[in-house]
Amino acid sequence: MSDLQIRDVRVILTEPDNIRLVIVKIETTEPELYGIGCATFTQRPTAVVSAVNDYLRPFLIGKNPADIEDIWQSSYVSSYWRNGPVLNNALSGVDQALWDIKGKLANMPVYDLFGGKARDAAAVYVHSTGDDLQEVEDRARAFIDQGFHYIRVQVATPGYATYGSRGAVADDSLQTGPRVITDRVTKFDSNTIYAHPGGIFEPRPYIKSALGLFEHIRATIGWDIEILHDVHERIPPIMGVDLAKEVEQYKLFFLEDLFAPEDNDYFRMVRQQTSTPIAMGELYNSPHEIIPMVKDRLLDFMRVHISQIGGLTPARKLAALCEAFNVRTAWHGPGDTSPVGHAANLMLDLNTINFGIQEYAIFQERTQEVFPGCPEVRGGYMWPNGKPGLGIDVDEELAAKYPFKERAFGGAWDTVRRADGGVVRP
Ligand code: GCO
Ligand code: MG
User: Fold this and answer.
1) Predicted confidence band of residue 30 (pLDDT cuts 50, 70, 90)
2) For ligand 2, a single-atom ion, which residues have Cβ within 5 Å?
3) What is the spatial distance between Cα 164 and Cα 288, in angstroms, rounded to a whole number?
4) Which of 206, 234, 330, 416 has its CA at a distance of 20 to 30 angstroms from the CA of residue 371?
């Protein structure tokens, strides 16, 4: 086994259910021994393909796949300039595939390689979104009936683009307050696929509708479930501080992305003024952004996107750092984390004592067919299948039947703007 080598590094692109997924497959000189990893960056997938094919592949062929730490460290600095979603996702694809291979070699699931299970299954949260309060409530009730206990709630703000709600396109007739622009806002064409719609966003109406939603859910469904909410960094920081105080009464499980990473320091202000639990991290790329947040206990839930920071190798170290400060993990798990990425999340969820919650985007049927061994969710928990490695595979023939579709702007997100035309963070 000591002369085992990486024979090839390949990228598999597939879009079974309208999300462009990027998977890296590492083949070894041992016939049938391979691993897969998630390198999905939906806004710039082809840039990741180039990072893998043009740079990592030639760098890695011939190396021993057992040397995960050495491969991670040497690949990380092989571009000299490092971090960022393209290079880190490419590296994650390789890294997760190597853990998958190591698990297969050891005949153990990856959580066993990490030291074994700290729990049997991972509690997940699901997303209840709607155009109005009733729709969000109905969806939440349907989830509760299926055994889910943690529900993220988002409602459309009438007339405005709203993160996390479908049909979130501005409607001029419903907008309130002073307004300047119209011509910079995309005129949507119904034949085109938009990765993420733009539109007009104003913080005050959004805050009003979000607070109205929490009030409604507590008044109708009650206090026996946990509710979560994602601000998605859109509002000016001082309004974020105020929002964190206002929502204290609704006892959220967590309030997510209250500020952009560029405004990390505002979390200090929030900490001094309220005990609303704070979740942050999906936009972090590098240790420089993350370590101060953990060591100063400025957040309660570390929500890093594992492929975004370069895979399981850095993520498990981050989990250990968080443990020392009693910060819980809540690894990012939206639809644009592939099922392979969800399987990787699960490996850490099971092994980490300071696990908090796992975000879960329900896998559609076609996605489940393309990825045999997709983590199973039952009774509000994600369960491991006990198979060696990450426990998941990709059916390449089927994956090829779902090639990437054309999108407006190549899949880049459209611009969200204030009513005066200024750009808003997503
Ligand atoms: C979440 C996220 C996602 C992101 C998406 C970006 O909390 O699930 O905010 O919905 O917006 O992953 O591509
Ligand atoms: Mg989020």
Assistant:
1) very high
2) 230
3) 28
4) 330
Q: Which of 196, 229, 232, 332 is catalytic?
A: 232
pLDDT in tens, 279-297: 999 999 999 999 999 999 9
Decide whether any atom of ligand 1 lies within 6 Å of the 414 Cβ. Answer: no
Q: For residues 352-370, b (16+ Cβ closer than 10 Å) or e, as one string?
A: bebbbbbbbbebeebbbbb
Residue 283 CA, ligand 2 centroid: distance in Å: 9
Q: Domain spanning 122-389: which superfamily?
A: Enolase-like C-terminal domain (3.20.20.120)
CA of 35 to the centre of ligand 1 (A): 26
Alpha carbon dihedral 257, 262, 265, 268, in 10-degree steps, equals 0
Q: Over the stretch 312-341, which tens digit does the pLDDT of each residue have?
A: 999 999 999 999 999 999 999 999 999 999
Report the 10 Å Cβ neighbour count for 163: 21
pLDDT band of residue 181 (cuts 50, 70, 90) is: low
The pTM score is: 0.96
